[in-house]
Every structure is written in C-alpha cells, then in structure tokens.
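1st attempt posting a full record on here, be nice pls
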Amino acid sequence: MSEPRRDLSKKALGAYGETLVARWYESGGYTVVARNWRCREGELDLVATRDDLVVFCEVKTRSTDLFGVPAEAVGWRKQRKVRALAAIWIETTGVRPRAIRFDVAGVLRQQVDVIEAAF
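the predicted structure (as tokens):
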C-alpha cells in the first residue's frame, strides 16, 4: 500500500493504519478476528488471536509527529475504555481466552510500531 496523501480524511488515514497493523499481526502468526468491532459502548480497533491468547489493539495513525508520536494519544481514559470494551467483546463472543493482552500500535509514515502489553 502506498503512503497516504496528506489530504486523506481522518477516517481513511485510520483505516490505512489499521490495515498496516493487521498485516503486522498476521505476519507474526496471529489471526485478526475483528476490525472495528462496535457495540453501543464504543469500538475496538483490532482483535487478534494466537493460540489461547487474545490481543486487543488500539491503533493510532498520524501523518506527522508534530504533536507527538501516535501512541502518546492513548491515555488512561482510552485504556480504561478499551478494557471495558474487551470485557464486552469476550462476553458477547463467548470466547474464553487463557490470556489477554492490550497493545497499542502507532503508525507514522508507513512505519508500524506495536507496543505489546502496553497496559
């Protein structure tokens, strides 16, 4: 996929970043089981599995680092929200993982940086 143009909408830029991050997980042997999973309470960007592990990943994509690196945008409020949404996803899907992990992925100029077990 080519580098996004500066005039891409936020939505298109976000989708581009999520695609790159999904590829990153798949190249590491994970299966992406959900993208943009939504419920009344919010949305999970990516849910991936490998063996008995379920990973919930918050993806932040930026076209510039003028205001900091993308991962810095995931503060404690967002972390709390992702944890709550993960519990709803587990309850809704009936998946019973042995382990769960919360990752943050930042995408900046086609560079994917995944912080595993970020919170």
